[in-house]
Amino acid sequence: MIGNDFLQSVGIFKGLDENQLATVQSCCREEQHMAGTKLFEEGEPASHLYIVKKGQIDLRFDLPGRPTSEKNTISSILEFKAFGWSALVAPYKYSLSAYCTNQTCEVVKIDQQCLTKLFEENSRLGYLVLSNMARVIGKRFQKLEKLTTAAPVSMVKVIVHLATCGIVAGAREVMGALMEEMSSSNRSDIKVESSGCIGKCPTEPNVTIEIEGEDPVVYQKMDAEKMRQVFHQHVLGGQIQTDFVLN
Amino acid sequence: MIDNEILKTVEALKGLNDAQLTAIQKCCEKMEFNQGQRLFSEGEDSAHLWIALDGEVELRNDLPQGQTNPVEDPISFISKAELFGWSSFMPPFEYKLSAYCASQKCEVVRIEKESLVKLFENDANMGYELMSHILRVIGTHFYQFRNGIAKRWGHDIMSGW
């Protein structure tokens, strides 16, 4: 069941009252996808608008005869963010393909016909959502413009080891802090992944930072605060935090 | 004073009734420009939405000399009954391009965005109708921009760069 609390946190539903959110709920359905699953394909009729509930979805262009890759990613969509808004904009066809890039991705799928009908019955709801959507697209436009004009950045991957031992030691809190920092960093080029145990259970939670052209660095006994420090100092600033490195 | 009959020819306003068009009229200001005159500049606060009534308006990038857009030069021409200046409805609420009168004379209508938003808040039907159109225009520009990037990156990958 998708609660109003969740929908309220989604940018495109900002300003909607409880009743309006409840009507939107009636068009929603939850889905889970495994890493690598394609949720929809470029060119397909855009029958649904999506919101990421958990994990990360990459919007990629497909190349004929080539498997998909991170290099094809135009945007990475994190929790509480909407994607597939071609469902509300003519010609109603997805312009990129969507892939789940976390171990599991939870998404809320909103039926386009159901939502459009709601907008026609309640034009205030339609007006609010479309105005919010114009703002969301504007922000993504800006972000993409910055990305294309900025100097090329190295490929960066942050892996949180989320095996049972890691979760018991607090890896979920570490992942939570990382996702928060990612949301406010404007660096959609950084990949966040979850992975299994690295065989050093007493040192969990472990986090691995992979930066193109450099040796991977594994951090040990991480918590939310250390994760924020590593994100800012190492991932964004290039300074390895030797105090937490697993030797 | 802008006649409702003129406003009715604008694609984005076609779904509105006479009372709604009359309300929009009150936010409109008719203006004339000569060839080469600038209507607005790239980066300026986009406080107005515009309609071309007569003549041709050119939208172009005013990048400093020697600097080029990394994807493509987004130049377009706006002619009769077309709406432009849609960046007034999306962040950072600045014009993305500069607009120049490209014909001998240009007759345009300038609609104050703030007044328009107030109208939308009082008449959600009008708001929904117009926002659907504006979103379509914004969406099309975003698709084109994104497709340009995808083509460029795709070409780089296929070439093994």
The CATH architecture term of the largest domain in chain A is Sandwich
Number of domains as seen in the coordinates of chain A: 2
Q: Given the structure, what is the number of helices of chain B? A: 4
CATH class of the largest domain in chain A: Mainly Beta
What is the rounded Rg of chain B?
Answer: 17 Å
As for the CATH topology of chain B, it is Jelly Rolls
CATH class of chain B: Mainly Beta
Poorly predicted ranges of chain B:
68-72
Percent helix of chain B = 25-40%
**Helical content class of chain A:** 25-40%
Distance between the termini of chain A: 45 Å
Largest interface, Cβ cutoff 8 Å: A-B, 34 and 33 residues
- Average of per-residue pLDDT values of chain B: 85
Compute the separation of the termini of chain B in Å.
Answer: 58 Å
Give helix and strand order of chain B, one letter per element, not per position. HHEEEEEEEEHH
Strand order of the largest sheet of chain A: 1-8-3-6
Q: Give average pLDDT of chain A, whole number.
A: 89
Instruction: Give the CATH topology of the largest domain in chain A.
Output: Jelly Rolls
Total strands of chain B: 8
